[in-house]
């Protein structure tokens, strides 16, 4: 065979793979990635009637599979009352150029126990196994931090996890660093004395030498439920913190005021050159757009406000929407968020980044269904209360919460549990019935959302009893876990 044939085959192979590391070269390349076939979800038993450890569920989402919409594997944790929450990766698209890295470990922090579980998903992606447990005392002693939340891999090969508090349950927004090979805690990312008053989510954008972090509240206050008086007492946050990515110093704080109370998920645009993004603020149902100014500092402005509804039969005379999760499509064209109290998911066209307009909406449960105890007296958006949502004969309990979008942007997955203590307070039926995972079909041309009536994963039917399924992750990465450099 002529040597030119070997050269041609080599070059063809190189053009397809380039000997790359994990993830994708760019967000637009990711949009052309393979369709998701399985997903991982942490399932919680804390605050339910089942005295069992939390577990990681593997769900088949391949329509061609005989086990479509089924839980095909369950990995129980070795401890009780962890409150598994959000997960991340040991390596993702920020390590794309490093051929020595593999996306083969899922980082699974525990919001209440402060453990960090390292899950091996590389040996058998359909049957994950426990690789290592990082015990809370290591985080307490080495970092003075507790209640880990968001995990992101870094281009350096390290793993960074934000925290909500200190070991005593007070608010403390710091960042724990893990070695990407040994998974030992190596210390704090932030400099001594630089931790924020509260912590929650974060996103970094190295081309602008910046990281942004948000605030939930003090763990000892929010651990067992929500009391509006705690907001007035200053136990919940309302600020975005701006960090210098190189020096690890907090260089600016953006106070969003009462309209920005409890800013949760923060998302930069996926384009790594972009100097703007969005944050969803739970308490007042607002979305803020943040951006870099010509002077080089940062500013934020409210661009969306979901009106409250005047009601009777609820704990307060006005019901906020409670925006609890947001995400952006990989082409930076659409913004999605969930209103956990009102019960709807919204899709906004953000072609004009400061002037989004709603192009899709769907109701999936919530607190204002027309056959429930709450009666709406005044609604600035709806003419009537929404009807209950029935999918495959199942009335959907709870309300849409965590969102995950397929790489191509055509399928939106949603689960209905927020956090076990708040689930128990606002949707007690969710504790008894368990949560569900649904799929929404997305119109990516004009915008629009439609429930897939043939898709339902019912975690109320789990072998060990009804469970609260939370965040959705794809083995190959997704639009809320991958950051491009």
Automatic annotation (TrEMBL):
Catalytic activity: methanethiol + O2 + H2O = hydrogen sulfide + formaldehyde + H2O2 + H(+)
InterPro entries attached to this UniProt entry: Se-bd, WD40/YVTN_repeat-like_dom_sf
Assigned GO CC terms: cytosol; membrane; nucleus
Pathway annotation from the record: Organosulfur degradation
Function: Catalyzes the oxidation of methanethiol, an organosulfur compound known to be produced in substantial amounts by gut bacteria. Selenium-binding protein which may be involved in the sensing of reactive xenobiotics in the cytoplasm. May be involved in intra-Golgi protein transport.
This enzyme's EC code(s): 1.8.3.4
Membrane topology value: Peripheral membrane protein
Family: Belongs to the selenium-binding protein family.
GO MF, one example: methanethiol oxidase activity
Gene assigned in the entry: SELENBP1
Protein name: Methanethiol oxidase
One Pfam family recorded for the sequence: SBP56
GO BP term, example: protein transport
Lineage, uppermost ranks: Eukaryota, Metazoa, Chordata, Craniata, Vertebrata
Annotated organism of origin: Electrophorus electricus (Electric eel)
SUPFAM superfamilies tied to this protein: 3-carboxy-cis,cis-mucoante lactonizing enzyme
Protein's cellular compartments: Nucleus; Cytoplasm, Cytosol; Membrane
Keywords associated with the record: Acetylation, Cytoplasm, Membrane, Nucleus, Oxidoreductase, Protein transport, Selenium, Signal, Transport
Cleaved signal peptide residues: 1-19
């Amino acid at each position: 065979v002529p040597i030119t044939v070997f050269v041609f085959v080599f070059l063809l192979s190189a053009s397809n793979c380039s000997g790359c590391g994990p993830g994708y070269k760019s967000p637009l390349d990711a949009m052309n990635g393979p369709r998701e076939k399985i997903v991982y979800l942490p399932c919680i038993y804390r605050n339910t009637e089942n005295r069992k450890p939390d577990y990681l569920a593997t769900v088949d989402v391949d329509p061609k599979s005989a086990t479509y919409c089924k839980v095909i594997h369950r990995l129980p944790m070795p401890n009780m009352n962890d409150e598994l929450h959000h997960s991340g990766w040991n390596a993702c698209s920020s390590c794309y150029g490093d051929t020595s890295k593999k996306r083969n470990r899922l980082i699974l922090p525990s919001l209440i126990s402060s453990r960090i579980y390292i899950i091996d998903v590389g040996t058998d992606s359909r049957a994950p196994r426990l690789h290592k447990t990082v015990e809370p005392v290591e985080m307490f002693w080495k970092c003075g931090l507790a209640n880990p939340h968001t995990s992101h891999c870094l281009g350096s090969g390290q793993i960074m996890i934000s925290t909500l508090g200190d070991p005593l349950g007070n608010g403390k927004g710091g960042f724990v660093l893990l070695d990407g090979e040994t998974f030992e805690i190596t210390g704090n990312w932030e400099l001594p004395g630089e931790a924020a008053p509260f912590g929650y989510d974060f996103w970094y954008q190295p081309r602008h030498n910046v990281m942004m972090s948000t605030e939930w509240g003090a763990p000892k206050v929010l651990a067992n439920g929500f009391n509006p008086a705690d907001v007035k007492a200053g136990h919940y946050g309302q600020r975005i913190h701006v960090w210098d990515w190189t020096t690890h110093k907090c260089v600016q704080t953006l106070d969003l005021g009462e309209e920005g109370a409890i800013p949760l998920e923060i998302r930069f645009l996926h384009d790594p050159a972009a100097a703007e993004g969005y944050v969803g603020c739970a308490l007042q149902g607002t979305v803020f757009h943040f951006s870099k100014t010509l002077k080089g500092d940062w500013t934020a402005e409210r661009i969306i406000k979901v009106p409250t509804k005047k009601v009777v039969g609820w704990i307060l005379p006005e019901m906020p929407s409670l925006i609890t999760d947001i995400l952006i499509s990989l082409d930076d064209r659409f913004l999605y968020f969930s209103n956990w109290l009102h019960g709807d998911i919204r899709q906004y066209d953000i072609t004009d980044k400061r002037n989004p307009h709603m192009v899709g909406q769907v109701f999936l449960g919530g607190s204002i269904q027309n056959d429930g105890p709450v009666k709406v007296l005044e609604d600035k958006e709806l003419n009537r209360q929404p009807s209950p949502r029935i999918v495959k004969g199942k009335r959907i309990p709870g309300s849409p919460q965590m969102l995950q979008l397929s790489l191509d942007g055509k399928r939106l997955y949603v689960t209905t549990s927020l956090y076990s203590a708040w689930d128990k307070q606002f949707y007690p039926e969710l504790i008894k019935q368990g949560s569900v995972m649904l799929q929404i079909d997305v119109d990516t041309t004009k915008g629009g959302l439609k429930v897939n009536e043939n898709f339902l994963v019912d975690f109320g039917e789990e072998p060990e009893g009804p469970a609260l399924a939370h965040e959705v992750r794809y083995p190959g990465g997704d639009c809320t876990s991958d950051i491009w450099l």
